[in-house]
Specification:
Blueprint lengths: L3 E2 L1 H14 L4 E9 L3 E9 L7 E5 L2 E5 L4 H4 L3 E7 L2 E7 L5 E2 L6 E2 L1
Parallel strand pairs: 1-6, 2-5
Antiparallel strand pairs: 2-3, 4-5, 6-7, 8-9
């Protein structure tokens, strides 16, 4: 299944890339961290690695490394404003449990 962005998330990524002045894609991944075991990585990519899985969503190229792909399969990245807070939210169908602070998860 693809990794996708909502239209709001795609608009936000495009604005960040434009402000940054460079970058070809958004790179998503996971790393070992936190009280539940894994945490999301989100960064801008200036180059596409040959092994990256590539997805296009609302005009934004999304890259996922092969080790992270099984954990992110089917994930939707959204951008939400809640009161004074705003940020990217991962809707990952593979997550079985999340820590109380929302910073890490396990599958």
């Amino acid at each position: 299944m693809p990794v996708t962005l909502t239209e709001k998330a795609a608009n936000r990524v495009q604005a960040f890339l434009a402000k940054r002045g460079k970058g070809v894609a958004l790179r998503l991944g996971v790393r070992t961290s936190g009280c539940s075991g894994m945490a999301y990585k989100l960064e801008f990519a200036d180059a596409i690695n040959p092994e990256d899985a590539q997805f296009d969503s609302h005009g934004v190229k999304v890259l996922v490394d092969p080790k992270s792909l099984p954990y992110l399969d089917g994930t939707v990245l959204d951008f939400a404003k809640e009161g004074l807070n705003e940020g990217f939210k991962f809707r990952n169908p593979n997550v079985k449990d999340e820590c109380g602070c929302g910073e890490s998860f396990n599958i």
